[in-house]
Write a structure and sequence with these properties.
By secondary structure, the protein is α+β, with helices and mostly antiparallel strands. The chain contains 4 helices and 10 strands, in the order H-E-E-H-E-E-H-E-E-E-E-E-E-H. Strand 5 and strand 6 form a beta hairpin.
């Protein structure tokens, strides 16, 4: 005899399926290798160009766990604050994007709430270039790089980057960081310069006429200086360059 299916059993099955779907969505959201972020177009990951060290770590929760593609692994510190992560590149790099993976839902009091970022050519000249603060971070947290470049431009040129975790949620002692990714421009992808777009907008609707060959590029004038081409648009030779006059 077949037992009847009660509404309670049906609801329980639906809730289990919903919980499983939610868990899968969470894992997908924190996948470190998702490529659907439009800001990553034209960039390449340069994590492999550096040596990574941490101030302290629990067994099996060190650098290898931090750089693992699995979202459930993490770096867990084991010592007093601040907890530091040092990234030393073997050559000068131009960093255009830096992001850190955090998950407050799983880590709670281990979640960082205030971090400091420094960079330089070595440990002797580290300078602070940015900071981050958050209360309940979930997912990738972008570190602002605006104004870090030469002349206030965007981007960071350095050999060494250091991340310092200054505070955790609810004054937690140790910290959990689930991933760090550093990106630079991919030289294999052609980059569109801003001045090119401006030139196209300025030249729109204008007929382009090829310039005639300059007189000093012709065969008769080739090999002569601009001072010898005075009649052809050259420069006047100054007095101090002429032959001296004996008086």
């Amino acid at each position: 005899m077949t037992e009847p299916i009660t509404p309670e059993a049906t609801d329980g099955g639906d809730s289990d399926v919903a919980a499983t779907d939610a868990a899968e969505e969470d894992e997908e959201e924190l996948d470190p290798f998702r490529d659907d972020d439009p800001t990553l177009q034209g960039l390449r990951n340069i994590n492999s160009l550096a040596s990574w060290t941490v101030s302290t770590h629990k067994p099996t929760c060190g650098v290898s766990a931090l750089l693992s593609p699995a979202p459930h692994t993490y770096w867990q510190s084991d010592g007093p604050q601040p907890h530091t992560l040092t990234i030393h590149f073997f050559k000068l790099v131009h960093i255009t994007k830096l992001r850190i993976l955090l998950d407050f839902r799983k880590d709670e009091s281990y979640t960082p709430t205030r971090m400091q970022f420094l960079a330089g050519t070595g440990h002797h000249d580290l300078c602070e270039f940015g900071g981050w603060e958050g209360q309940h971070p979930v997912g990738w947290q972008n570190v602002p790089l605006d104004g870090c470049g030469v002349g206030g431009g965007r981007g960071l040129r350095c050999f060494l980057v250091q991340v310092r975790v200054l505070e955790n949620h609810q004054n937690g002692k140790d910290t959990h960081v689930r991933g760090v990714q550093i990106f630079a421009r991919d030289e294999r992808v052609p980059q569109r310069r801003e001045d090119e777009s401006e030139d196209e907008s300025n030249n729109s609707g204008m007929e382009i006429v090829e310039d005639q060959e300059a007189p000093w590029k012709k065969g008769s004038a080739r090999g002569k200086s601009l001072f010898d081409l005075k009649g052809l648009g050259g420069l006047d030779e100054p007095d101090w360059m002429r032959d001296p006059i004996v008086r």
